[in-house]
Amino acid sequence: DISVAFVNPDLDWNEDRRRITGVTTDEAAIAKHGRIPLDFIAVGCTNEYEAIRRAQYRLISSQTEKTTVNFITTRIGVLTRLYDVILVADPTMGWSQTGRIKSYDSSYIYLRDPIFIETNEPYILKIQTISGIQEITVLVEAIGYVDRFVLGEPMPVDVPEQTVFSLEQAGGLGLAKPFRVLSVEPVEGSP
After folding, report:
1. pTM score > 0.70 for this model?
2. What distance in Å separates the CA atoms of residue 101 and residue 111, rounded to the nearest whole number?
3. 134 in Cβ contact with 120 (< 8 Å)
4. For a disulfide at 45, which of 6, 94, 171, 179, Cβ 3.0-4.6 Å?
């Protein structure tokens, strides 16, 4: 059960409440744990329909977002804002592979560290550039540990040195997983 409170201009700017009904809920979870009421305040909301949409989003998110991750990143991590969606690559979980580009020319991308390749198919390389994330297709020359990729298309022009990339199979296997940012905190003793 979820109900939402918002400021209603039709009630002389007083608080109004709506109970959310008709949203698909997890009946198995309700049978196991019982109904868990949640009073949700839609801060800054003055429209009934927007308040209901926010509450529905909160309900759906609470039922579908079940995995959390913690990690330390570089200073570019401070550019993320609360509730941004980021992609997380973790090879041990089967969520893509990551690395750094050492250098590139018109034909090849040379990697700082070798990466283990399982299939001899095209891959999608997502590169962090100054203008955002760029995707390019790369080909592999062998299965096993490789230290370079064959460019399937030209490299973007604004790729900085030692840039970070994630690698995905073109068919969608090994995709980086989306996560919502819930907090950003500085690490003690780290500039």
Report:
1. no
2. 5
3. no
4. 6
